[in-house]
Amino acid sequence: MKKLPLALLAVSCLSFGALAAAPDVSFNDFMQKVGEKIKAKSDYIRIPIDTEKQSNRFITLYSDLYKGKITHAQFIKTMKTDYPDKKYEKSIMWLAAEAKGK
Question: Would the CA dihedral through 64, 75, 102, 7 be positive or negative?
Answer without folding.
Answer: negative
